[in-house]
Amino acid sequence: MIVPDHLMKLINSGQLIKFYKSKEWRELRKLAMKRDNYECQHCKLEGKVTTRETINKHGRKTKMDVNHIKPVKLFPHLALSLSNTEYLCVYCHNIADGKDEMIKKEPKFVNEERW
Ligand SMILES: [Zn+2]
């Protein structure tokens, strides 16, 4: 079971990937995808339907992912809260992550280690 203390240890030791591989997160992810009807929630706000079957301008299917609305690193206690998740396409996810970068203290390093 993942608890905030455990999560903080993973974050502080750079092992957050372990959280994303956990059974708890994978199950929550599935719930979030289903709740969001497998559609990107940000595109939906703009009246567009984007799913993993949507073909992008490069002729490939769109990558989709479940995003934490409030970032795990700042809100570890919300990491497994369904209401803190949203299903997004990779484009909206990048934009959402960019916003997270802006609220960090060292904007100089925004372009490093994006992935
Ligand atoms: Zn989108």
TrEMBL record:
| Origin species | Sporosarcina saromensis
Which UniProt keywords are given for this protein, alphabetically ordered?
Answer: Endonuclease, Hydrolase, Nuclease
Asked whether the UniProt record includes Hydrolase among its keywords, one would answer yes
Give the highest taxon in the source lineage: Bacteria
Q: Which residues form the HNH nuclease domain?
A: 27-94
Q: Report what the protein is called.
A: HNH endonuclease
User: What terms describe the molecular function in GO for this protein?
Assistant: endonuclease activity
Q: Tell me, what's a Pfam family for it?
A: HNH
InterPro entries named in the record: HNH, HNH_nuc
Tell me which positions the record assigns to the signal sequence: none
